[in-house]
Structure formats: structure tokens, C-alpha cells
TrEMBL record:
Chain ranges of the RNA polymerase sigma-70 region domain: 22-83
Protein name from the UniProt record: RNA polymerase subunit sigma-24
Record organism: Luteimicrobium album
PANTHER family with a match to the protein in the record: BLL6612 PROTEIN, BLL6612 PROTEIN-RELATED
Annotated Pfam families: DUF6596, Sigma70_r2
Stretches assigned to the DUF6596 domain: 184-283
Listed SUPFAM superfamilies: Sigma2 domain of RNA polymerase sigma factors, Sigma3 and sigma4 domains of RNA polymerase sigma factors, TPR-like
InterPro entries to which the protein is assigned, alphabetical: DUF6596, RNA_pol_sigma70_r2, RNA_pol_sigma_r2, RNA_pol_sigma_r3/r4-like, TPR-like_helical_dom_sf, WH-like_DNA-bd_sf
Length: 416
């Protein structure tokens, strides 16, 4: 130990250790015991012990080792208290087994095993999100409930059922094999992207329109996956996409209204995040030139790189944006991609051409508020005010984001 330290320094040390070591600790305990409940509770007890002891004993020279030893003891104590059967006692003795563990996948890392376990396709997507935020991100159940505007009891039950399903289905704690990795990794990235998007444009009327806590956590987890899989292009692409989007956060809401990209004060964008995102995109462009075809997240990141490279919206290379959307449409031929491409076409070929493209998407996107918002904007630019007003009304009725609703209402009210 280093000796007693001021309380505020201890709090910072525990918070830093929690941020850096929580996922690694839970993952290593889960691997040893094969039980997520034991892993989670032992890890939580270890951090609670740190909060109680570090102010007087001092912060350990190696906090990670201290937490690991403490958590392992807590896990053994729990098994003993519960008067476990012989099989459970064997699990406890695994703590003292010096035999190297059998390789469990393509990458031998407890955190990565934990991520793939939490994001297993056997679990429903809401369960994957909640379990990932709890066990990998270290968020509490109340924090997750607030993030997604759910009851704490519902989130708790969702996590409990997910852990029970993992146990009942004997879902292994391992990274998938090389053959299975691409398909399974896509599910992990989808979970992180979902978390980020909920923070980027919060869907609930009773919460902040932009949730920095969620976007920051998604970026942190994406960095973790990037650290563990540094050569994967889609991991790099998703991180770049998040960084380039997060860089614009300070300019996205003004006076309670969402500020669209073309109206944002670009001097308020975070230069460091923008530079990092651009660097990742450039790395992927080099890989593409060498024959590695980019995936969906890489193309989305490239589109954002074009937008954030322009000092003024008038300097945007719209022809390149449209070309990238053409590339994205080949990877993801969805109506949403077609809608975003049409918005870019409006800047290149005019609103009338774009509106014709948008109108074809109505049957697929009638309940999707960005469709009606885009259509309203195109109609406004064509001076078709009555139709634009009706489209704005429909978009306002569908959006749950307060800042976006305020911006759409203002635009509607400027019509004649």
C-alpha cells in the first residue's frame, strides 16, 4: 500500500479502477466460475471493499491485482456460505489451480469473451444491450433504466433472465472461432451502435435530447473492442463513425432546438475527436486501396469524414457523399439508406429530383419521422407550403426527441 490518501484522491482512484478494470474483472471471474451472478456480485463487493479500505490503507500499488484477489476471495466466501455441492467446491478450487487455461477462442482476453457472451445471438437485442451495459460497461441497474426510460424492475428482470438463459443454454465464455467471428462481431457492433444512437438522439420525451453519458459509454466500449481487435476494419469504422459524430455534440443543440448539420457552428466541433476519426478513416482507405473491401460502418464513417472535412457546408463535396451512399446501398439496400442518399442528391441535383426519390419510399417509411422531416424540407424548398406543413405535422407527431420536435415546429411555423 502507498499509505492513506485524501478522500477525493481515493474516490478518483476507485473510479479510475472501476472504469479500467470492471470488465476485465467480471470477465476473469466469469471464466473461472462459469457463473455471471457470482462474477458480478464478487466484482461489486471488491469495489465496495476498495471504497471502504483505500482511504485508510492507501491505494494499492497495483489496484487491478488487489481487486482481482479481493473479488476471488469474495466469490469463494459466497460459495462456502451457500453450502455449495461438490461441483461448486470444485469451481472454488479452480482459483488455486495453476494449470494454464485452455485457449478459448481466436483472441484470449477475458473482456472480449465477456462482450461476446453478453451479445450472444440467442439473447434478444434489448437483453444484449442491458447485459452489456451492466457487465461490460459497469453501469448500475438504475443508470441503465434511466438511460432507456424503463422501470428499474424491468431492467433488473431483463438482466436476470439473460443471465439465466446463458446458464441454461450453456452459452460458452469464449471468443468465436475465426470462421464465426465476422457474423458474431457484427452483433456486438450493432449493440454498441444502438447504445450510441440512443444517446445521440434520445428517443424519450422526458430525457435530455442528447445523452452524453450513453454516447461516451458507447465510445469507450468501442475503444475497448478496437484495442482487442486492432486489425478489424468494421471495428475501426464504427469507432471512427462514433468519434466524428460525437465531435459535433456541442453544436447540435442550441436554445432547446436541434441544430441540423448545415446550420451548426463548426468552430464548436471537437477538433481532437475529428482528427482521430479522420485518421481512422484514412487508415481504412489505405486498406481498401490494398484490396480490403470496406464494410457498412467504414462507409458511414467515410461519409461523416466528408461532412466534417468541410469548413463550411457550401464546401461539402456532395458528389463524393452521393458516391459513398451508392456504395453503402450495395452493402445495405434499405429504405433508410435510400432516404439519406436522396437528401444528399438534393444538394447535388436539386430538391425536385430528390423529392421524386423520396416519394417512392413512403410505403416503407411512413412511421419513420426522418422520412417526413426530409420530405417536409424538400417541399418547403419547392415552395409547396401546404404539403410541407402537413409533412412537418406528421414528423412532429412521430418524433420523441424534444429538441428535434422544437426545431421541426419552428420550421413549420415559418411557412406561409
Amino acid at each position: 500500500m502507498n499509505g492513506a490518501v485524501p478522500v477525493n484522491e481515493t474516490v478518483e482512484a476507485v473510479a479510475r479502477a472501476h472504469r479500467d478494470e470492471w470488465a476485465r474483472l467480471v470477465g476473469s471471474l466469469a471464466r473461472r466460475f462459469g457463473n455471471l451472478d457470482v462474477a458480478e456480485e464478487a466484482a461489486a463487493e471488491a469495489f465496495a471493499t476498495a471504497v471502504a479500505r483505500w482511504p485508510t490503507d492507501g491505494v494499492p500499488r497495483n489496484p487491478a491485482a488487489w481487486l482481482t484477489t479481493t473479488a476471488q476471495r469474495k466469490a469463494v466466501d459466497r460459495l462456502r456460505r451457500e453450502n455449495q455441492r461438490d461441483a461448486r467446491h470444485r469451481e472454488a478450487r479452480m482459483l488455486h489451480d495453476d494449470t494454464p487455461p485452455e485457449p478459448l477462442g481466436l483472441v484470449d482476453d477475458d473482456r472480449l469473451r465477456l462482450i461476446f457472451t453478453c451479445c450472444h445471438p440467442a439473447l434478444a437485442m434489448p437483453s444484449r444491450v442491458a447485459l452489456t451495459l451492466r457487465l461490460v460497461g459497469g453501469l448500475t441497474v438504475p443508470e441503465i433504466a434511466r438511460a432507456f426510460l424503463s422501470q428499474e424492475s424491468a431492467i433488473g428482470q431483463r438482466i436476470t433472465r439473460a443471465k439465466a438463459k446463458i446458464k441454461a443454454a450453456r452459452i460458452p465464455y469464449r471468443v468465436p472461432s475465426a470462421d464465426d467471428l465476422p457474423a458474431r462481431l457484427s452483433g456486438v457492433l450493432a449493440v454498441l451502435y444502438l447504445v450510441f444512437n440512443e444517446g445521440y438522439l434520445a428517443s424519450g420525451p422526458g430525457t435530455d435530447p442528447v445523452r452524453q453519458d450513453l454516447t461516451a459509454e458507447a465510445v469507450r466500449l468501442a475503444r475497448l473492442v478496437r484495442e482487442l481487435l486492432p486489425d478489424d476494419g468494421e471495428v475501426a469504422g464504427l469507432l471512427a463513425l462514433m468519434l466524428l459524430t460525437e465531435a459535433r455534440r456541442e453544436a447540435r443543440v442550441e436554445g432547446g432546438e436541434l441544430v441540423t448539420l448545415d446550420e451548426q457552428d463548426r468552430t464548436r466541433w471537437d477538433a481532437a475527436l475529428t482528427a482521430e476519426g479522420h485518421r481512422l478513416v484514412r487508415e481504412r482507405l489505405v486498406a481498401a486501396a490494398a484490396g480490403t473491401a470496406p464494410g457498412r460502418y467504414q462507409v458511414l464513417a467515410a461519409i461523416n469524414a466528408v461532412h466534417t472535412s468541410a469548413r463550411d457546408v457550401r464546401d461539402t463535396d456532395w458528389s463524393q457523399v452521393v458516391a459513398l451512399y451508392d456504395q453503402l446501398a450495395r452493402l445495405d439496400p434499405s429504405p433508410v439508406v435510400a432516404l439519406n442518399r436522396a437528401i444528399a442528391v438534393a444538394e447535388l441535383d436539386g430538391p425536385e429530383v430528390a423529392l421524386a426519390l423520396v416519394e417512392h419510399l413512403g410505403s416503407d417509411l411512413d412511421d419513420y419521422h426522418p422520412y417526413h422531416a426530409a420530405r417536409a424540407d424538400l417541399l418547403r424548398r419547392l415552395c409547396r407550403d401546404a404539403e410541407a406543413r402537413a409533412a412537418y405535422d406528421r414528423a412532429i407527431g412521430l418524433t420523441g426527441n424534444t429538441a428535434e420536435s422544437a426545431a421541426l415546429t419552428r420550421r413549420r411555423d415559418t411557412l406561409r
